[in-house]
Design brief:
Layout: E1 5-6, H1 7-22, H2 30-42, E2 48-49, H3 52-62, H4 65-84
Antiparallel strand pairs: 1-2
Helix pairs in contact: 1-2, 1-4, 2-4
Length: about 90
Amino acid sequence: MLELKNHTEIVVQQALKKYLGNNTLGCSCERCQADIMALALNRLPARYYVSSRGEILTQLESQTSPDQARIMAEVVRAAQQVSATPSHQHDQIK
């Protein structure tokens, strides 16, 4: 069976890394980062591909400024939400 890949997941992960490089959150543990990714991905359309050609076409389509801006906006929104109400207590971070 062919493996499905979601291009949106890749670009959200890159956007989160960029965001965390420029901003400080109350907590940026693995759990909080996963929560941020999940929240952002749930608000963005999935873009699946199965081949190298599909990957290239999907990358080209997602290079537009509105797409990049929307992705970063969702990452920022999710980061603010997770920072305000993390899903763990600060003493439970592992």
